Amino acid sequence: MTISDSTTTFANKKVVQYDPDLPYDPSADIVYRLSLEYDDEGKMGDLIASFLGKADKTALSALIIGMWGDPYESGADEVMAALIARAAELPKLRALFIGDMTYEECEISWIVQGSYKPLLDAFPLLEELRIRGGNKLVIEPFAHQHLRKLTIESGGLDEKIAQALAQSSMPQLEHLELWLGTNDYGFSGDVQLYQKLLAQLAVPSLRYLGLRNAEIADDLTVWLAEEPLVAQLAILDLSLGTPTDLAAVAVLNHTQLGKLKRLDLSHHYISKENQAKLKALPFEVVLDDEQEEDQDGDDIYRYVAVGE
After folding, report:
1. Which secondary-structure segment (H or E) carries 135?
2. Which residues contact 297 (CB under 8 A, 6 or more apart)?
3. pLDDT tens profile 177-214
4. Which of 118, 187, 190, 283 is the most buried (most CB within 10 A)?
């Protein structure tokens, strides 16, 4: 699987591609996506300035930043600096997605990101932050009183990101989604690290936990099936990873999952027999996209959905 399509909805709004040559639409049910093409001579800072020159800045609630020209070489720091410089003009900005790119624009593991603490500090009322790409991504420990939804999509998440999040404070957090990926593209860390992260971030409002696209999906599932903090969740999302029958048995022997509404194990390596048992559980278990292992002699290979 690759990310082949740009985002179509964000923050409960329809996504519209910004074109400087077209009239600005102020409708409250749309969100604009700002993106450059490879052959564009301008810079993203100029495109942001053009957009904000037309938009009602005092009412703007959501924004998407797509390809900023050469995201495989230059990072998102300049993009964020352009937004930070205009922060005082954007009092109602509540949702921001930086890095909305397809694989044709830039593979997820090639996207050079940046440092996000200055952005979070500049927008203390931000409620949703979505980041795509883990290459040179920097997250320092932070405290944010209003963030409700944090998503970091990557083909390989460095353990430094999880360590920083495990030292951060988001008392209103409802949705935490991390794509862990594979060590072939930068993943590092272990279950013990994510235990610390959940212990810190499982505030009373947390209802969705996604540890997705993980090559350690079995280990995560074995832990989470016995983790008391999971009892407060409505949705546990372990999709896009490599869960096997080991994960299935852990779920079937669960002690803490009974209050879930949905467990997502899509993109899995689970046997038909255990799939049938999982389907009989008293909550929804999503088992789409069944995979087959690759075998080379005694070596067995399983792959996350989104790597490169």
Report:
1. none
2. none
3. 999 999 999 999 999 999 999 999 999 999 999 999 99
4. 187
- Runs of H (alpha helix) within the chain: 44-54, 77-85, 117-122, 159-165, 191-201, 217-224, 245-252, 272-279
CA distance 287 to 248: 11
Q: How far from chain centre, in Å, is Cα 181?
A: 11
Which tokens sit at 103?
A: 């694989």
| 51-57 long-range Cβ contacts below 8 angstroms, 24+ apart | 51/18, 51/20, 51/24, 52/86, 52/89, 54/24, 55/24, 55/26, 56/26, 57/86, 57/89, 57/90
b/e 177-213 (16+ beta carbons within 10 angstroms → b): bbbbbbeebbbebebeebbebbeebbeeebebbbbbb
What domains appear along the chain, each with residue ranges and CATH number? 1-128 (3.80.10.10), 139-308 (3.80.10.10)
Query: Which residue's structure tokens are 């989470």?
Result: 224
C-alpha to C-alpha distance for 218 and 292, rounded to whole angstroms: 16
What is the pairing mode between strands 262-264 and 9-10?
A: unpaired
Weakest-pLDDT range from 30-39, 112-121, 227-236 = 30-39
pTM over 0.85, yes/no: yes
